[in-house]
Amino acid sequence: MQNFLNLCKSAIGEEYVLLDEDQQAPYLQDWRQRARGNALAVLRPADTEQVAQLVKLCATFKIPIVAQGGNTGLVLGSIPDQSGTAVILSLQRLNKIRHIDIANSTATVDAGCLLQQIQIEVDKVDMLFPLSLASEGSCTIGGNLSTNAGGTAVLRYGNARELCLGLEVVTANGEIWNGLRGLRKDNTGYDLRDLFIGAEGTLGIITGAVLKLFPKPSNFATGLISIDSIQHAVDLLSLAKQLCHANLTSFELINHLSLELVHKHFPQYQRIFAKASPFYLLLELSGFGTEEQNTQQIENLISTAMEADLIVDAAIANSISQANNCWALRESISSAQAKEGKNIKHDISLPISAIADFVKDTNICIENAFPGSRMVTFGHLGDGNLHFNVSPPTQSEHKDFLAHQAEINRIVHDKTHQYGGSISAEHGIGALKKQELTRYKSPVELQLMRAIKSAFDPDNIMNPGKIL
Amino acid sequence: MQNFLNLCKSAIGEEYVLLDEDQQAPYLQDWRQRARGNALAVLRPADTEQVAQLVKLCATFKIPIVAQGGNTGLVLGSIPDQSGTAVILSLQRLNKIRHIDIANSTATVDAGCLLQQIQIEVDKVDMLFPLSLASEGSCTIGGNLSTNAGGTAVLRYGNARELCLGLEVVTANGEIWNGLRGLRKDNTGYDLRDLFIGAEGTLGIITGAVLKLFPKPSNFATGLISIDSIQHAVDLLSLAKQLCHANLTSFELINHLSLELVHKHFPQYQRIFAKASPFYLLLELSGFGTEEQNTQQIENLISTAMEADLIVDAAIANSISQANNCWALRESISSAQAKEGKNIKHDISLPISAIADFVKDTNICIENAFPGSRMVTFGHLGDGNLHFNVSPPTQSEHKDFLAHQAEINRIVHDKTHQYGGSISAEHGIGALKKQELTRYKSPVELQLMRAIKSAFDPDNIMNPGKIL
């Protein structure tokens, strides 16, 4: 083992092989403070060549490798187990934007670039990289790709997978695959790119990527709408797609309790509607023409929906600060729920046509099993993704309620499966949902996944114990 | 062997096991009449269950299987070799549209549905399935997915891969994987869907799919533009993306010779510009508002481009028949070139920023090696895909020229590779480009592809001799 560590030190420099407990601490702790792993060492290579050298060493010594970006994952995918036998390979020092090609609408970046860093650099050349999520200030693009991150603009621009044209990957035996192609069409063999994307570091380590860029919108129109049922929200989504087509970039659901928790714990944000409603929607249209045209489009949508009796009330932001207030209400839900106390979270997706029935049905099941449970239902309705969280009844002890987490997960995930949905819409599987996966995936699908894993990583050194 | 055939007959009915040479003929001949294979039998199962039964029989008897849709492929991917040891498994009888889900914007279809059939059924519910290509009246969606088909709307809507949410696949051991999920977000393990898409039937047989639908545009604005260089065309593309963003659905390049061949062989089509230009562009904007708004948008683009000296002349179609005339000019290029005589075709893609230099450089190389060669350069410039075809010099014999096919391919493909491009943008590899693949792919990429093939199809019975 000492020999292995010495070889690592020669490969990347002694200061980048972290052995000290304090130095290692931030790499070992998961972001939600639910688990902490142990590591033989934290390795911080400088570039792709060094990543390859380290992986070769690990392959030789059969040392498990946990690749890590910003360590902001929510499913315990980027920390090792507690055995202390694995190394963490941090990509943070691979943080260069290699090239922005304006005519090709692409950016070639190191895997360790922060998502926000990419957004900012691309913005400087008047373009847009549309991936956007709460942790964008600390997550890395390599992590975003390894988990196929989603976020608030999937409705219009797709997941991380759809925003990536090419990859550079270090394979499990330490070879470098240069697939950094900036091509919109390339039918030359199997789609390795999309196999590494979403594989959570279990098949290889993403070290670089070619990302798709888009024209930067010139303005945004933001509206908050109150609505009396999810079915009406789904009908409004169809209408919004018809009337606003590609300009519709966000369509977010907020249930009444979600909004009330925000107002309770963040009184600084302005209340929009005097009258309560069971659900609210946050809509955003990206405009490429004048601000007036964009406002007209959202006004037209709202008046058409009013006439069709789809919506109860609506408010259009008249200023950037009003728009920011709407977004703050949406983005503070998780924090507000956390301030209210511990709760049980689900990251699910459903066919949009099934969402209304799913919510009704599942709410009844939870109410029957755990009367008084408070449903904090919100999320990216436009792409079928709900954060379907459950808070304890007001009068009950949080820790007593949390003891029922497995039962509540079972109700929600069984119902999700029954309605044709996914038990992990955008967070991945990691170690947290590994057991769940075997419940909901067919044997044939699991067998195909295992065949890929064995083919790419026969010694099982790439992030072992995750996904499969 | 007789035993195998008898078991096939019991599985799907005697009339659907074609042994007769005349009956087999259309399945054996490739679409471009360049090659003809032989088959033990042509099997025509009725549904997914029957496909699975047949694959199980083939697995037991180690009989190679060539899955076939409309047999319109261009790379000899859907016909067997000449040994006569393989069966052709035709998906044509799996031709039901299973379900259209309007609220979810999806259609679930059998693999043997004709592309056009899907377009028409979806149109009836006022939605759009945007995949569109020349053979849409005879190709099947299973073939489109197996080859990750492209076509004229990739710029806006993506390839077949990006238009598919879920698959049903019969694996190499005859099991059915039901991955017919209609979800926009689903991060539960490896991306099997995108691995089967584009695998040309070498990993399994696609029997069904969930397709993404879009709002149907209410009108189209079509323009033909004359332009003096490819660099200006690329600059115009950037401008068009900025000004028209998602409304820009087609951006097609036509060089002077391409257009002249069309006018020579199809005199029924109207000439648009009196004055010749080295290049022309066909633009289409899909409108979701009024026709007037859409016309304004294309007029605004053209006047902005005129002021920037990017374009020489422009004509906007004033009627559907004028728009159809523009499209007929574009879509008759291949036929016109065929009427002119045999020629050497290339289906390449490049980073858009490299196209102008690539064309200049490659034209010089071909002119030096084969003086007088006539370049028929056209294609989907908006997504970097050129059909970079070479016709013989006017005075030379076509067959003498065709003898140099390998040398000309080498020049074009080496240059494509040098400029970061792909030697097969949208047609795939099949048997035709298998050798080429080993020249341009890195050993590590080939090795990863072979690992997948061995893992999924260890006995090599799924379309052997294709891709790898």
Automatic annotation (TrEMBL), chains A, B:
InterPro entries: FAD-bd_oxidored_4_C (IPR004113), FAD-bd_PCMH (IPR016166), FAD-bd_PCMH-like_sf (IPR036318), FAD-bd_PCMH_sub1 (IPR016167), FAD-bd_PCMH_sub2 (IPR016169), FAD-linked_Oxase-like_C (IPR016164), FAD-oxidored/transferase_4 (IPR051264), Oxid_FAD_bind_N (IPR006094). The keyword Transferase does not apply. It holds the Pfam family FAD_binding_4. Residues 35-216 form the FAD-binding PCMH-type domain. Its cofactor is FAD. Keywords: FAD, Flavoprotein. Belongs to the FAD-binding oxidoreductase/transferase type 4 family. This is FAD-binding oxidoreductase.
